[in-house]
Amino acid sequence: MYLLPHVKSHSPHSIYDFIYMHHLLYQALGQTSLIPRPTYEKKLLSVVENGAIAGGSLEDYVSKSDEIIQSMGDIEDLRKDTHCKPYAQALHAAYELFEGFLETALVEEDELYVCVLPTEHRYSLQNRHVNILPNQKAWLQAIISFFEELTESGYCMKEEVTFSDFLFSEEGEVLYFLSYHLIYKDLIDPVNTRTLENNLRVLKQLVLQFYDYYYFHSTRAEPVRHDAYIEILHNKLKHGLKFSTFQQFLIEEYDSNTSDAETIAVFFDTANILTGLRNFSIEFHQLFSQLFGLERSKNITEQYATLFYPVYEDESKTRKEFMKRQELKATLEKQGFTVIEVKNDQARAKKVVDGAAYDIDDQALITKIKQRMSKFHTICLFTGDQHFIDVIEECKRHGKEVKVISVHPEDTSQALIDKNKDDHYFITEFWSSLQFNWKEEG
Hints:
Number of helices: 16
Mean pLDDT: 79
Shape: elongated
Strand order of the largest sheet: 11-10-8-14-15-16
Structural class: alpha/beta
Largest sheet: 6 strands, parallel
Low-confidence stretches: 68-75, 81-88, 253-259
Radius of gyration: 29 Å
Helix content: 40-55%
Distance between the termini: 53 Å
């Protein structure tokens, strides 16, 4: 497997810089780090084309040879630069390789120098590892440790870094960091103060990118558990927690299996809440952190939401509403909900029982609360509907703490408010967790 040195479109020195930094990092961090041994060999273009995994494109790599040849004088000056003297060994190795590249580009246009990666690993070249990352923590701890090693050696990571700059195994182990052009040394920061601040900030940004990376590359993205290591860390950083050391990133995973641990279940009356919210959506992680506190919110172990699928005489209208609900279902599932789908082959969810009208989606959610009651200590119920009063009272009789959230007074039963005075909230009390969704007119 081959790694192409990164080629910057406006910098003929980029190949040289890449190789130089690779040697420098390996020399500074040693074999225990995520830096592979800088083994560069001359390979046929056809071979590299089939085995390259990163860096610049072959076309860019070869096409820059003329510019690099013209800049040889500049590179010779760089070699004599006083700042480079402490790194003479890495500089010399990179320079020799660079000269070899130039000779190859001039004489043998079908060959070039590439870094040869070890073959003992099963590299994840089709992003197969992405599906299992949320349920593992070793890979994230390895990246955190890598940032700490960089900082201790005085190296800064650039903000452009992404999870794609790391090479994983198919089992989800992070093997190597590959993008050496993203690392630099702050030569006027002898005590590494600015280096630490920079790397803490960049690591935070990297962690906050995880879900974009996960949902984009995963072939079967699933809801991430609230007690997952990445989820806990992501929430801490998302809600403004500032870390001053890398050890603070290495949080202990919450153990949801301990017998005395509090468990919280969330039940969401989708129709009642979203009708009142209109063009607003809820950022649930933020709301839970405000309601329960950052630490307690990670005790949420179950989330359920009901979704009614209407059937109309007009089949096209039925299909349109079906697609809308499928989109909503995907949104809820991404935020950790198990969606209970409800149908009655009618346009409305109403059902008359003993002369009283009930919504079948409400009944489905009430049934689920009763089924799961023995599994949780606290219930958070999103509804303004009086139909839930009886099941709330039943939960309280069994010693459960109940918190009720509704949209606003017009959508909320007064009896529901009166019976839950100390534990009822309007969602406007969590204003920062609401997001306005712009919709085009027409």
